[in-house]
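Slide 14.
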Amino acid sequence: MAQNALILILITVLLVSFRAAIAEEYIVGGENGWVLPIQANDIGNNYTTWADSFNFKVGDSLVFKYKKESHSVLQVNGTAFADCITSDPLGAWKDGNTSIVLKEAGRMWFICGAPGHCEQGQKFKVTVLACALPVLDGQTEIPPASAPQPGAGNGIYRSAKSATIIGSIVAGAFYLL
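Slide 15: predicted structure.
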């Protein structure tokens, strides 16, 4: 009986730990996506305010949804971010649906590479916090069952991989009991 109680306590600790480490998927700009601030409905997008409203951690993903004919995503350093320098980026994407997994803690900067877009505010920076679990290449994210409501989470989705891990732990625990 004491062994069963110990197993139950260990399972509880693991579940609490995994809950804190579940990766999130963030749609950059929420429902408007990655667009020029002046193109985002009547209120516009303020990417700085958007990014500052979240605590990004290692394992999370940023998803940029945009028209590939009009925009791009450039990962740059702090100087290029401040001065809107589009040459020699750290990373560049132009596929219209870019997903970037945040693999290490620290500051990251993103701008649009289309002429004049960065200067008009299509840029933001994030501070990525460390997390307890390593990030695996090729992790799979799934969309929610229904689209998020405006103002309800701004497009944050849970990782299917993390949910599978938690489910496996619970199933294994019940097998041991």
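Speaker note: The first strand starts at residue 24 and ends at 27.
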